[in-house]
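Duplicate of earlier report; acylphosphatase input re-posted below.
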Amino acid sequence: MRSFLIDTDQNTPENEAARKVIVAVHDHFCEKAGIEPWAFQLPAGKSTPATEDGFDSSDAPSRAIQLLFSGRVQGVGFRQWVRHELHRHALNGWVRNLGDGRVEAVIAGPEDALEHFLGQAMGPEAAELKSREVRDWYGRHPERVQIREAAEVPAESDEPS
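Output:
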């Protein structure tokens, strides 16, 4: 389990879940053995853009964007890839498939983290990204990372008046 931690990215649900399991198993075995739990240091996991570039504590202005991805982006793990990258960049957002074959995402966070996310290679290996449309998002900012149910058309965001 420790080696799993070393091989997972910090700030991801997989890393956090593994940390909780290790501590729970440690506490359980100590209780069964009738001994006091002892302190130990778990490996943090692989560095991510959020930790390397300080996005997890950035004071850059916050912004939200809507992304529309087209190409071979459904059925290839694209939404899961977006979810993982949002955690790696300490961003909040949601992602979903659209009825026309595109994938839509709304992402919010510090400007520097958004720019770094946009500069990354887009999608898992099985994906074939043909285009990526980026728009400012004026609707409600996401407060967590979520894969949503599919929708027929993209969400609307009102322009500021």
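The radius of gyration is 19 Å.

Merging into the original ticket.
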